[in-house]
């Protein structure tokens, strides 16, 4: 491949979990929140909903950026929803909603869908796809539900649960890529980057082992 200009990744999401996932994989993103009103998109398919929202978030941020002559800028929009019992579940409306969800979900399973839209600002190209993972929930008690909801964590995330936070003990197992459940699939990101004629290593800015800092790689 020819020499590649420095690559800047802009994450169009306020999610700390998505940012930490990228950082742990050696990618230090800039963060620019899209401000998209998620309630404006209505569809009956969870996969369509999360992908359309990911697309809108990425495009909203792209509209606020200017192409650069000395680097390539990629904008990544993501959105996650849980498909459960024929319903599409985003973030709970309030603690009562989160409690009711967990009373239904415990001991059962759902599918977490995460839409990804990656835009190459300078080239005007984009690649997009959905990653899906089956999540099996533990049969937790009423006390555990009340205590978990009381922390506030379930109110901030799609499906009212996490696997990388306080909700981790309440997920028995998953079928698929764990980072999808966090909201950003690293294997899928690698494939989307390749569709834009780049390599995931072009985005590396550090090496995790030993906290060694290095110059941009790739």
Automatic annotation (TrEMBL):
Cited SUPFAM superfamilies: ITPase-like (SSF52972)
Cofactor: a divalent metal cation
Organism domain of life: Bacteria
E.C. numbers: 3.6.1.9
Primary subcellular site in the record, as a coarse category: cytoplasm
Compartmental location: Cytoplasm
The keyword Magnesium appears for this protein: no
Enzyme class: hydrolase
Catalytic-site annotation from UniProt: 79
CDD domains membership: Maf
Record key words, sorted: Cytoplasm, Hydrolase, Nucleotide metabolism
Reaction it catalyzes: a 2'-deoxyribonucleoside 5'-triphosphate + H2O = a 2'-deoxyribonucleoside 5'-phosphate + diphosphate + H(+); a ribonucleoside 5'-triphosphate + H2O = a ribonucleoside 5'-phosphate + diphosphate + H(+)
Family: Belongs to the Maf family.
NCBIfam families: maf
Cited function: Nucleoside triphosphate pyrophosphatase. May have a dual role in cell division arrest and in preventing the incorporation of modified nucleotides into cellular nucleic acids.
Protein name listed in UniProt: Nucleoside triphosphate pyrophosphatase
Organism lineage string: Bacteria, Bacillati, Actinomycetota, Actinomycetes, Micromonosporales
